[in-house]
Design a protein that fits this description.
Strand content: over 45%
Strand order of the largest sheet: 1-2-3-4
CATH superfamily of the domain at 153-311: YVTN repeat-like/Quinoprotein amine dehydrogenase
Helix content: under 10%
Number of helices: 1
Order of helices and strands: EEEEEEEEEEEEEHEEEEEEEEEEE
Largest sheet: 4 strands, antiparallel
Number of strands: 24
CATH topology of the domain at 153-311: Methylamine Dehydrogenase, Chain H
CATH class of the domain at 153-311: Mainly Beta
Structural class: mainly beta
Radius of gyration: 19 Å
Length: 313
């Protein structure tokens, strides 16, 4: 469960997910009654209800503003996934189903173009969806199609995944090196499975294929992995990924620069079961959510200390 301070979202049952749009003007929430609700962030008033699912809505995500016309995705405990568009009124533009409950559904950063990735708890695959415009024919009118391509990421069902930020490592650089650098970082994502493995993948945009780059946590004995979250950055060459485990252990994995090995930079225990990880937009705060509360941690001199505690009501 997650908290949405200042909103009456909990009046509609357990709140499983809450996400702001790319400009922070609207908040989408996913509730146990299967309904996705849209809230105005200025007034904290509900402005739309989307009767999305027959089972509890578990995840919701906004598309980047630059990749319209699709604007929202929602997923539920019965594996149903709905893509939404707002044109005066909200309407569904595509539906699909994954095996098990939906554990993740998110659009990649806008710099790479429109693509949606989804995953279910009983499938080892991450499914990538792309949109294609279809010309009118003798039997079908003009419209759009959503093409689906699965990638086997693990040997068991997934528990989560996260796209890497698109900011180029040269964003903060200057001089000739900056002029020669790529405008964006390589396309990457991190995935985690119920078999305890955590893997980093790199995508080839030309061939539309994925290759395994690193294995952070290998299959084997130990507490199951619950979630992974790639830390946003502002163009620095290093990368960080947070991993949390069922027993409350949180790890921060760090890579000095692309192509270098990954290692555990910091680890600590929150003392209770963990469900979800969320970074702040600037990557300065990490929220670790459990069954009854969310703990906010902040980094100082390479060490992570608790900054705030939020209780679900």
């Amino acid at each position: 469960m997650v908290a949405a301070p200042g909103y009456d979202a909990l009046a509609f049952g357990s709140l499983h997910d809450a996400r702001y749009d790319s400009v922070g003007r609207r908040l989408a929430t996913a509730s146990s009654d299967g309904v996705v609700r849209i809230w105005c962030t200025e007034s904290h008033q509900m402005v739309a209800q989307l009767p999305a699912h027959q089972a509890a809505a578990l995840v919701v995500g906004w598309a980047p503003k630059k990749t319209l016309p699709v604007q929202l995705v929602s997923g539920a405990a019965d594996g149903s996934i709905v893509l939404w568009r707002e044109q005066g009124e909200w309407s569904s533009v595509h539906r699909l189903t994954v095996r098990g409950s939906v554990v993740a559904a998110s659009f990649r950063p806008a710099e790479y173009g429109l693509m949606l990735a989804v995953a279910g708890s009983e499938s080892p695959d991450i499914c990538f969806l792309t949109r294609k415009e279809v010309s009118a024919s003798a039997v079908l009118p003009a419209g759009e199609q959503w093409l689906s391509k699965p990638m086997e990421a693990h040997s068991a069902g997934l528990v989560g995944f996260c796209w890497a930020p698109a900011a180029s490592p040269a964003t903060l650089a200057a001089g000739p090196a900056a002029a020669r650098a790529a405008a964006r970082a390589p396309l990457r994502l991190v995935s985690a499975s119920s078999d305890r493995s955590v893997r980093i993948w790199r995508g080839d945009e030309k061939s539309d294929t994925w290759s395994l780059q690193h294995e952070l946590v290998e299959r084997g004995p130990g507490p199951p992995v619950r979630d992974v979250a790639w830390r946003p950055n502002l163009g620095i060459p290093s990368s960080s990924i947070a991993v949390c485990f069922e027993d409350g252990l949180v790890q921060i994995w760090w890579q000095d620069m692309e192509g270098q090995p990954w290692s555990v930079q910091s680890s600590w225990s929150v003392g209770e079961e963990t469900f979800r990880l969320t970074w702040s937009t600037a990557g300065s705060l990490l929220a670790v959510s459990g069954p009854e509360q969310s703990l906010l941690f902040k980094e100082s001199a390479g060490q992570w200390a608790q900054a705030c505690q939020l209780y679900d009501s």
